Amino acid sequence: MALVSPSILSVPGPMRLEEAKRLLSLGADWLHLDVMDGRFVPAVSLPFEEALPLLEAAKEKADVHLMVENPREAIKAYVEAGAPRITFHLEACSEDESFSLLSFLREIKVKAGISLRPGTPIEALLPFLPLVDLVLVMSVEPGKGGQAFLPSALSRIAYLKKVREEKGLSFLIEVDGGIKEETARLAKDAGADVLVAGTYLALQEDAKSRIERLQEK
Ligand code: DX5
Ligand code: ZN
Asked: How many C-beta atoms lie closer than 10 Å to residue 103's C-beta?
């Protein structure tokens, strides 16, 4: 079974909490929280005050995706707020800082995730893989929902699966962007363990059956 992590980025602010609770009650495995700072990506999303009730609702299911530059402060704030898993971007800080942040998350037993833009060579992740619990493969350019899935993500997923096996590692492979029924199938066949889905699930009447279809291996 694949895990499903709905993103509520496309849901208007006042409806987000209710929609998040509904998707969780319909069987979503995680809740994907897209945080944007207007610098790493042009858009700004999810001010911290708005994230707090969502974290509270999702508890162990919260899946924080930080699209912010120099994420140390944001990571500290989310750790203090009790986030169980936090992903940041390799491009958002120096290599040394990435090592330091991943080690910090590991030490305090918060699941550590690393992500990269579609254009960043996947091999750039190699030195970090022994330190991560999760790799988030972007299948769209980060910054907004509703974009088309980039097929180049599939070979990146397959590559990570191969490296994981060869190195005896156990991180999860999560894919984010443009996930719908057909692209979910391709991503799962390539080796994705967790699917983020925004517009395909949010505010959809048949979200329950959509979640179930995405979960099918
Ligand atoms: C994009 C975000 C995604 C996005 C997914 O920057 O990281 O999580 O909300 O939305 P869809 O599924 O509509 O592509
Ligand atoms: Zn995301």
From this structure: 12
